[in-house]
Amino acid sequence: MPVLAQSDEKPRLGLSFPEGFVWGAATSAYQIEGAANVDGRGPSVWDTFSRSPGKVRNGETGDTAADHYHRWQSDLDLIKQLGMRSYRFSISWSRVLPGGWGPVNAKGLDFYKRLVAGLHERGIAPMVTLYHWDTPQTLQDLGGWEHRETAYRFADYAAIVAQALGDAVPAWLTLNEPKTIVQNGYLSGSHAPGRCDPAAAYVVAHHQMLAHGLAVQAMRPYLNNGTRIGPALNLHPCYPADDSAQAVEQAHKLDGFENRLYLDPIFKSAYPEDTLAAIAGISPMADHVLDGDLKTIGEPIDLLAVQYYTPIYVTASGQTEQKHPLSKAFWQQIYPQGLYDILTRVKKDYGDIPLTITENGLPTPDEVGPDGTVNDAGRIAFFRDHFAAAHRAIADGVNLESFHVWSLMDNFEWQEGYDERWGLVYVDYATQQRIPKRSAHWYSGVIRDNQV
Ligand code: GCO
Q: Which CATH number fits domain 22-449: 2.30.180.10, 3.20.20.80, 3.30.1950.10, 1.20.120.1200?
């Protein structure tokens, strides 16, 4: 697999960001917390999936992960030392509600209260994702996202957490990447719950969108003006692989499945017609869209969290094509201009909503050198070029407020287990020692100067 070999000879470009621009990093519960059976946490679909033979590389699980549940204080110290002013993390639904609904596990909720308080003590703003793919297993057993009730249970959970943490969390994200649940969880089966079922996949898409809208409604009464809610969507700019009219048409069609299927209902209270028509041949999704659902999904939001990793190129025959160097992740082409394109496109098509980038990053083949440091030059080059793309978008009028890199530290990368290292901070899983990589030191300088 070709690995990024860009030079970081020019680690800084002299581009200043607007005053008040916020820099941070992101993680998610199952990927870092560990403590899978501690303090009353209930199982999630990822516990089940990772224990199923052959699903995750080397049979690895998130049972221990980066042991953040026990090491959170020193992890927050590290975030502070690096100079970040925002930290995006997710709450484990089944830690708070071990059964998915019903009695609250006070110990689980307390963990997040301590985390939020600990961030404030260190001058770091918490940004909370309510759902980062770890559906409680109890709900999955009843049908998971295929079952409409799950959307209502999610809204109940969202209200409980909003009531408990309230305005101490200035920015709330409902669902992380509903598209990944559809594509990886229900189409390719590479993620939990490991299904290959197109009929179910788009029903799952709709119920997740409904869950988003219901959660926004359920949380509002517990939040004051100024506390913001939005979804976290992974957007993929889709380009024709050549100039042919057919390739252009294929790119538009793919854009429906990658972007408009999620953006349109949220911003326009409507699913894209062309995508719905294509789905009608493979899934009964439309039968599950009940009166009023689209209005609920279109409930006003306050910010949009954008996650960008890769562009997709599509040929006249609808095949995808690689045009740019790949990272260590087989699916990731390195193309910083794609970030500019997707940010400016969101503004053009969906208006001037405040934007935050909540994920952007790459895995590199990191190793601790003889001098004890980790030289991830490829990560520095990647972020330099993506920050520059974000800078161009801001210069062209995009209302981008903050940038959270993926990820704060190495973690459980889903079906790749611990094989891919995406962090600014190296985690030695045998000792749980944290070693800030060269990119972490570089990023600290970017933050200090507000300049790439
Ligand atoms: C995501 C994921 C992360 C992944 C990252 C790298 O939301 O896509 O949130 O969990 O680890 O994207 O694949």
A: 3.20.20.80
